[in-house]
Automatic annotation (TrEMBL):
Classification of source organism: Bacteria, Bacillati, Bacillota, Clostridia, Lachnospirales
PANTHER family tied to this protein: XAA-PRO AMINOPEPTIDASE 1
Keyword Protease recorded: yes
Keywords: Aminopeptidase, Hydrolase, Metal-binding, Protease
Family per similarity comment: Belongs to the peptidase M24B family.
Protein name: Aminopeptidase P family protein
GO molecular function: metal ion binding; metalloaminopeptidase activity
Sequence ranges assigned to domain Creatinase N-terminal in this UniProt record: 8-137
Record's GO cellular component terms: cytoplasm
Gene3D superfamilies registered for this protein in UniProt: Creatinase/methionine aminopeptidase superfamily, Creatinase/prolidase N-terminal domain
Domain Peptidase M24: 312-528
Length: 598
């Protein structure tokens, strides 16, 4: 494979030379800056061999480099071996950013090429600023993929589903009215919406154009009186036509978006979000007239779940948690007695989810990592490359489902047999961190940066860190990763940060990842709620949605304080009370033991 990657890079360099491009940049994105993308957009993976969901490749005549974040350092190191591509570990000390690298390497007047449709405006503008003194030429209309990637697939296309308003809590008309109210306050006449999950939420529709993410490739353009939805004709159903007519939504062809913006004759100040609008469309907007870069108003509206959504989510999470409990019971009962691999274990859990009423899909491909493989946060086992499980060590399983009524995300690390005392110490620290954040009481106005230390402190006490955030928002029958809410400690210039609002859901997933040894993560999903309000302000707390036991075989109670033991016992009591009615008698007896007091 590494020889193949070298040949692909060489082919790209030939095209670059012919096109007069000195440096070529390939991010991991589609036309909407989606986190996960269809096969059509996986140019960076094709050229580099790195399969992680986040990474940017930069190629010049003499060097190729790939930038990715801490979740993928181990994976990228392995996958890039022998390719000649240098790994740049983002945020590590002494590692330049892409802007800093290009600023240092590029000579005055050289050309930087990239497909402006898959580079977001915010990043494109940062590049402009960083390279302005060198008079770098931006060739942002260069999609060299079609020439290098001979068997590239076509754009994905799947029929759109219109959701019943009974499970949405609000109509598309009500949502559009709220957006128009924000547009008026911002002093804008129109709103260009590029973010796929926001578009799905706004119109109460869902698609299937990204694996595990129920979104359809589309754009929306909203004015005070008009609304346009740009979507592939092959995705338009009779139900969508009827729905669009009901709410005054004009359906247009997906590939007409840029021409529509160029030819629009009305004098309008257009609101757009530079984090999610492509650099190519941004250049079209700025050449056309006045525009304003601001956060999508839909983002916060979507993140704060209404009571109808929350009621459906609570029901879905109980069923999903029961499936995970059944999986853990099956695994512990059978490991060492029958052949089980990382892949077949994941398949069994996927099967259990598929039997739940309202199941649509997984919310992401199930991650099952045994022993040292669990140290790779986004490890992906395959039938040809996976470990067989034995009655020793631990299996980390990160999984979730898409249902008509919610999107789930849960991780448990399951002890299959003897583990070292160091591993038990790490396991206990992760559990304590998760429980401390679960039981947080905080004042309104806090962001995730204020709360992160509650989860991370047990690891920092041991001079250990996990190179990712502690939590992210989760969509409602939408993307498993959702903003603007999040829980993280690091401040990064320009990074979005949001106050925790009542109704926001967020994951709680501290971990320990020791390369070559083990990985541990315990993850629940929580919902922020308003608590007591007094002269000191509005106090808040979290309600838990996920009810799956934390493996007591990994816990060392001697390392826990009395209050921490009480939190674990109270959580396990709730797990048994809520989940046992959904299990068989044999499974209930097992769960009773798994949730015993310590």
């Amino acid at each position: 494979m590494n020889q193949v990657i070298q040949e692909r890079i060489a082919a790209l360099r030939k095209v670059m030379e012919r096109e007069g491009v000195d440096y070529y940049m390939v991010p991991t994105a589609d036309f909407h800056n989606s986190e996960y993308v269809d096969q059509y957009f996986k140019m960076r993976e094709y050229l580099s061999g790195f399969t992680g969901s986040n990474g940017t490749l930069v190629v010049s005549a003499g060097e190729a480099g790939l930038w990715t974040d801490g979740r993928y350092f181990i994976q990228a190191e392995n996958e890039l071996k022998g390719t000649g591509i240098r790994l740049f570990r983002m945020l590590d000390e002494g590692v330049p950013t892409i802007q800093e690298y290009l600023q240092a390497k590029m000579k005055e007047g050289q050309t930087l090429g990239f497909d402006g449709r898959v580079v977001d405006t915010a990043f494109g503008c940062r590049l402009e600023k960083a390279l302005s003194d060198k008079k770098i030429i931006f060739a942002y209309d260069k999609d060299l993929a079609d020439e290098v990637w001979a068997d590239r697939t076509g754009l994905p296309s799947h029929p759109v589903m219109v959701l019943e308003e009974a499970i949405c809590g609000r109509t598309a008309g009500e949502k559009m009215a709220e957006v128009r109210s924000v547009m008026e306050k911002e002093g804008t006449d129109a709103f260009l919406l590029s973010k796929l999950d926001d578009i799905m939420w706004l119109f109460n529709i869902r698609g299937g154009d990204v694996e595990c993410n129920p979104v359809a490739l589309s754009y929306a353009y909203l004015t005070a009186k008009e609304c346009f939805l740009f979507i592939q004709e092959t995705e338009v159903t009779d139900a969508l036509r009827e729905h669009a007519a009901k709410y005054g939504i004009v359906l247009k062809k997906y590939d007409e978006t840029a021409d529509f913006l160029k030819n629009r004759t009305e004098k309008e100040c257009v609101l757009y979000d530079g984090r999610n609008t492509s650099y190519a469309l941004y250049r079209t907007l700025t050449e056309k007239g006045e525009c304003r870069d601001a956060k999508n108003p839909t983002e916060l509206m979507k993140a704060v779940k209404n009571e109808v959504e929350l009621a459906h989510m609570e029901e879905v999470y109980l069923k999903d948690s029961a499936a995970v409990c059944r999986f853990i019971y099956w695994l512990k009962k059978n490991v060492g007695k029958m052949k089980i691999t990382e892949v077949t274990a994941a398949d069994y859990l996927d099967h259990l989810r598929s039997e739940i009423d309202g199941y649509l899909d997984l919310s992401f491909p199930t991650i099952a990592g045994y022993k040292e493989n669990a140290a790779m946060m986004h490890y992906e086992a395959t039938p040809d490359n996976c470990k067989e499980l034995e009655a020793e060590g631990m299996l980390l399983v990160d999984s979730g489902g898409q249902y008509l009524g919610g999107t789930t995300d849960v991780t448990r690390t399951i002890v299959l047999g003897p583990v070292s005392e160091e591993i038990r110490e790490h396991f206990t620290a992760v559990a304590v961190g998760m429980l401390q954040l679960t039981n947080a009481r905080f004042l309104y106005g806090c962001t995730g940066r204020n709360l992160d230390i509650l989860a991370r402190q047990p690891m920092w006490d041991r001079n250990i860190d996990y190179k990712c955030g502690t939590g992210h928002g989760v969509g409602y029958i939408l993307n498993v990763h959702e903003g603007p809410q999040g829980i993280r400690w690091r401040f990064t210039e320009g990074q979005s940060e949001s106050v925790i609002e009542a109704g926001m859901d967020v994951t709680n997933e501290p971990g320990v990842y020791i390369e070559g040894s083990h990985g541990i993560r315990t993850e629940n999903v929580m919902v922020a709620r308003n608590g007591v309000k007094n002269g000191d302000g509005q106090f808040m707390y979290f309600d838990t949605l996920t009810y799956v036991p934390i493996d007591l075989e990994g816990i060392n109670p001697s390392l826990m304080e009395p209050g921490q033991i009480r939190m674990l016992n109270e959580y396990h009591k709730a797990v048994y009370e809520k989940i046992s009615p959904l299990l068989t008698e044999e499974e209930r007896l097992w769960l009773k033991e798994e949730t015993r007091e310590i």
